[in-house]
Design a protein that fits this description.
The chain is α+β, with helices and mostly antiparallel strands. The chain has a domain of about 70 residues. The chain contains one helix and eight strands. The strands form three sheets. A three-stranded mixed beta sheet has the order 1-5-4. A three-stranded antiparallel beta sheet has the order 6-7-8, with no helix packed on it. The radius of gyration is 20 Å and the shape is elongated. The termini are far apart.
């Protein structure tokens, strides 16, 4: 009976961890604005570890492939008075404009 409860607990822990690991990862791709301009390169799959239990349990982390998505889509970036702003929408549907302070790098 104890083993059944342990198995149920492992399934309960694995499902949320796997779902969390599959959320898109923000990246500089697919029309994302960044410190060096806009990158229209393809957003790719990356590998990410999903911890399903504590290290003392003996359960090994799962490796899942996660899709990347543009961090600051260029269609939502505006320039005003020499500053860069990113506009998002909150849960109520109200637009929120926040200033982007991205570090500039010369290559």
């Amino acid at each position: 009976m104890k083993r059944v409860w342990i198995a149920v607990l492992m399934v309960m822990l694995a499902v949320p961890a796997t779902a969390f690991a599959q959320a898109p990862v923000a990246a500089w791709c697919g029309g994302s604005y960044g410190a060096q301009g806009t990158n229209y390169g393809e957003c790719v799959l990356i590998e990410r570890d999903a911890q399903v239990a504590g290290s003392g349990s003996g359960v090994k982390p799962q490796v899942v492939k996660v899709q990347t998505a543009p961090e600051y889509p260029s269609s939502m970036v505006t320039f005003e008075n020499g500053r860069v702003y990113f506009t998002t929408t909150d849960a109520t549907g109200k637009d929120i404009k926040r200033e982007l302070n991205l570090p500039w790098a010369v290559q």
